[in-house]
């Protein structure tokens, strides 16, 4: 796999070399799913309320969160799953299944879905970490060589963890 030099340089300039390389180990955590505290995540897109309502109905009807969201392991920026994230926030859930990818690797690519808004990996990271949001459905991430597998995480488990994380023995991942 090849690292995107521009993304790595941007991350170093944003966080510093020591903080970037001494935080989450991208090789240890990437391409795996973890339960992550919602409040440490950085979304990069806003959401459509109609989709949030649809996903809420689907989640409450099925009782399962079918797919994890996709998150960059280095910055905790949400790449895919903003509507699912918003639904869980709305329901008072504090943890979400997150599939970690290393955004600096070439197995993740991003394409603009809106002709009038430029998109790149560094722009997405910078926007999210500044607390700003692109409009909904601005970017499309494509993953090469693997597919995000469903987890079918029961809503009851997520609610229980949100009410008593200490009893569930959850330790949050280190953050940047």
From TrEMBL:
Top-level taxon: Archaea
UniProt protein name: ParB-like N-terminal domain-containing protein
Domain called ParB-like N-terminal: residue spans: 34-117
């Amino acid at each position: 796999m090849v690292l995107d030099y521009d993304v790595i340089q941007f991350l170093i300039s944003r966080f510093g070399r020591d903080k970037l390389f001494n935080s989450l180990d991208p090789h240890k955590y990437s391409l795996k799913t973890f339960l992550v505290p919602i409040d440490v995540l950085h979304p990069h897109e806003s959401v459509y309320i109609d989709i949030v309502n649809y996903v809420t109905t689907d989640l409450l009807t099925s009782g399962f969160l079918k797919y994890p969201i996709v998150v960059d392991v280095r910055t905790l920026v949400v790449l895919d799953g903003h509507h699912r994230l918003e639904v869980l926030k709305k329901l008072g859930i504090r943890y979400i299944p997150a599939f970690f990818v290393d955004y600096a690797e070439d197995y993740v690519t991003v394409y603009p879905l809106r002709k009038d808004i430029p998109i790149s990996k560094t722009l997405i990271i910078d926007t999210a970490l500044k607390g700003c949001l692109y409009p909904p459905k601005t970017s499309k991430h494509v993953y090469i060589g693997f597919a995000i597998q469903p987890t079918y995480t029961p809503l009851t488990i997520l609610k229980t963890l949100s009410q008593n994380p200490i009893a569930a023995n959850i330790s949050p991942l280190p953050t940047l």
